[in-house]
Amino acid sequence: MATQTKIITHILNALQIDLIAIGIIYFMPEIVSATSLPIYLCEPMRILTLIGLAHTGKENALILAIGLPLLGYLTGGHPHEIKSGIMAIELIINILLFYAIRSHLPIILAMPLAIISSKLVYYGLKWAAVSASLIEAPIIATPISFQIGVLVASTLYVWWYLKK
Q1: Angle at CA 148, nearest 5°, toward 137 and 140?
Q2: Does the pLDDT value for residue 76 go beyond 90?
Q3: CATH match of 2-162 with 1.10.1760
Q4: According to the model, what pLDDT value does residue 78 have?
């Protein structure tokens, strides 16, 4: 009975996090328009995926990594379909790499290493897409300072939550 309750609680927790993440991504254009703040520069898909990772584990984080960029494209046309695919690949690599190196390094080192490595893949793929004229965008659109802030905040949050 206790195991069944634990499973149901985990599923409900994952569902709650997923619905909040879906709502945030779905309403992102309206949130940005209403606040006049470029919230998308704070990498909401990464933050939401890593919150999912911390609270619900690898499988649900992978669902978010694939689903959030797809949802953003399907509901608002942003990011561009190719960029959405590149973002999904980046987030998947972030999660898989984190779990691969987590057993060898402390979380406080594994997470930033996974984020930086996945970003290198993202920028490599984005450069290739821009070079092939598949998308028109600057290679680095989000200021590095914002990216460092998200890296530090995400790392500290995942470390804090998982060390409990």
Answers
A1: 10
A2: no
A3: yes
A4: 79
Task: List the structure tokens of 97.
Answer: 């790499």
The residue-averaged pLDDT of 4-14 equals: 93
The DSSP code sequence of 47-75 is HHHHHHHHHH-HHHHHHHHHHHHHHHHHH
Q: Residues 66, 153, 44, 9: is their CA dihedral positive or negative?
A: positive
pLDDT band at 121 (very low <50, low <70, confident <90, very high): very high
> What tokens appear for 149 in the block?
């802030």
Ramachandran region, residue 110 (left: φ > 0; alpha: ψ -120 to 50; beta: rest): alpha
Q: What angle do CA 43, 48, 49 make, to 5 degrees?
A: 100
- Taking the C-alpha atoms of residue 132 and residue 20, their distance in angstroms, rounded to an integer, is 36
Please state the rounded mean pLDDT for residues 52-63.
98
Cα torsion at 20, 21, 26, 28 (round to 10°)?
Answer: 100
CA 19 vs CA 15, 96, 115: distances in Å: 6, 23, 24
